[in-house]
Amino acid sequence: MTTTTQPLTLEEFLHLPETKPASEYINGQVFQKPMPKSRHSRLQIKACTAINDVTEKEKIAYAFAELRCTFGGRSIVPDVAVLLWQSIEFEPDGEPIDYVKIAPDWTIEILSPEQSSNRVTGNILHCLQHGCQLGWLIAPNDRSILVFLPHQAPVMCTKSDRIPVPKDIPLHLTTDQVFAWLKMA
Asked: Do 146 and 158 contact (CB within 8 A), yes or no?
């Protein structure tokens, strides 16, 4: 959903109040993300938990849900933004800074039925063009994950396909394992 009719500058956008769900700034326009539904929310939380369980204690990386990242003329809010530990800026008291001005090292988007897959893919590609190592586009309706790596054609992962993760992250997942996170009963 587009929320502006005339172009804004990035600086003007960053002075607007935050919205729920989050709005993103892409090519002078503001787009509000759709409200997450239960499957989207569950996949997002499970992805963050799975990543943080194997990375936080050893200070390898951290997965943030809905973290605003402003870089390369865009301000986007990936469903999951993973920053390698050395990419995280900290306040003197050890807390992470609030304003992230770099691309995530790994970006994960979970496609909602109301979302434009091209816009979401565009955000992943933008991340890759600005230093991101890996992008996932999770499509719950067809149980597939489209994997994006820099300077390579995307790879479609389904069923028992092992999904690539950044080399420093000791996580081993198949597509079936990711979608098994949806089972609650």
From this structure: no
Largest CA distance in the chain: 47
User: Position 92: which residue type?
Assistant: P
Instruction: Tell me which residue of 54, 79, 70, 50 sits closest to 140, measured CA to CA.
Output: 79
Task: Tell me phi and psi for residue 179, to 5 degrees.
Answer: -75, -15
42 occurs within a structural domain: yes
Does residue 96 belong to any structural domain of this protein?
yes
Mean pLDDT in consecutive groups of 10 residues from the start of the chain, 185 residues: 69 96 96 94 98 98 98 98 98 96 98 92 98 98 97 98 97 98 96
In the structure encoding, which two tokens stand for residue 34, read together? 């759709």
Count of domains for the chain: 1
- Give the domain CATH number at 138: 3.90.1570.10
User: Residue 131 sits in which domain range?
Assistant: 36-180
